[in-house]
């Protein structure tokens, strides 16, 4: 669907977020934006923002940028997710060695996925939500880690924390506390409630 002809746009290229919306039959178009995320993260860090606040700021910035590039009246969904290990944000691994290091640090510990979603129209925020599912990795063996890295390969380089819970990465975990769609990057129930209140979805 052409973003400029759609009344609802997801300001993201994330396949997981797109699939979540498609799965609940929410018609939308995708319009990824070229936001300088690293500069905004550093600015949030300099202000002393929490990682949850930083995720919200990134989601807001994406939605604002998309609004400026799309027709007036378009409803825009912005989203962001930050892996929070005791206040430290993880980035996407740069290579397999970095992926191994991230997984070794996460092994046997709990981390939070600060998951932000916002709804904008005409450059103004209408609604937001911050979910914080907690995930606990099991004490997996080095042998399993070798096997996992070999099987998943370079696909892990696009995943913060070097895992995809919707794939083999599920074998890394012993517990997940929180909504599955929030883990995947888009808390849908609150978003759909906001879309109904806005008249975008049927009440």
TrEMBL record:
GO terms for biological process: nucleotide metabolic process. It comes from the Bacteria. It is found in: Cytoplasm. InterPro entries: ITPase-like_fam, Maf-like. Keywords: Cytoplasm, Hydrolase, Nucleotide metabolism. It catalyses: a 2'-deoxyribonucleoside 5'-triphosphate + H2O = a 2'-deoxyribonucleoside 5'-phosphate + diphosphate + H(+); a ribonucleoside 5'-triphosphate + H2O = a ribonucleoside 5'-phosphate + diphosphate + H(+). It holds the Pfam family Maf. The active site is at 80 (proton acceptor). GO terms for molecular function: nucleoside triphosphate diphosphatase activity. Its EC number is 3.6.1.9. Its main location: cytoplasm. One of its GO terms (cellular component) is cytoplasm. Its cofactor is a divalent metal cation. PANTHER family: BIFUNCTIONAL DTTP/UTP PYROPHOSPHATASE/METHYLTRANSFERASE PROTEIN-RELATED, BIFUNCTIONAL DTTP_UTP PYROPHOSPHATASE_METHYLTRANSFERASE PROTEIN-RELATED. Nucleoside triphosphate pyrophosphatase. May have a dual role in cell division arrest and in preventing the incorporation of modified nucleotides into cellular nucleic acids. This is Nucleoside triphosphate pyrophosphatase. It comes from Neokomagataea tanensis.
């Amino acid at each position: 669907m052409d973003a400029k002809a759609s009344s609802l746009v997801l300001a993201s290229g994330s396949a997981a977020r797109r699939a979540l919306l498609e799965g609940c039959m929410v018609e939308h178009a995708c319009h990824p934006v070229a936001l300088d995320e690293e500069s905004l993260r550093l600015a949030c860090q300099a202000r002393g923002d929490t990682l949850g606040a930083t995720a919200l700021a990134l989601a807001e910035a994406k939605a604002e940028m998309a609004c400026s590039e799309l027709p007036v009246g378009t409803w825009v969904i912005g989203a962001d997710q930050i892996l929070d290990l005791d206040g430290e944000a993880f980035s996407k691994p740069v290579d397999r060695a970095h992926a191994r290091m991230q997984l070794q640090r996460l092994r046997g510990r709990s981390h939070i996925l600060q998951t932000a979603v916002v709804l904008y129209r005409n450059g103004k925020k209408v609604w937001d939500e911050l979910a914080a599912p907690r995930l606990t990795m099991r004490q997996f063996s080095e042998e399993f880690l070798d096997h996992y890295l070999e099987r998943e390969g370079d696909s892990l380089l696009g995943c913060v924390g070097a895992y995809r819970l919707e794939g083999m990465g599920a074998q890394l975990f012993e517990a997940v506390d929180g909504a599955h769609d929030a883990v995947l990057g888009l808390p849908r129930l609150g978003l759909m409630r906001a879309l109904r209140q806005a008249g975008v979805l049927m009440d």
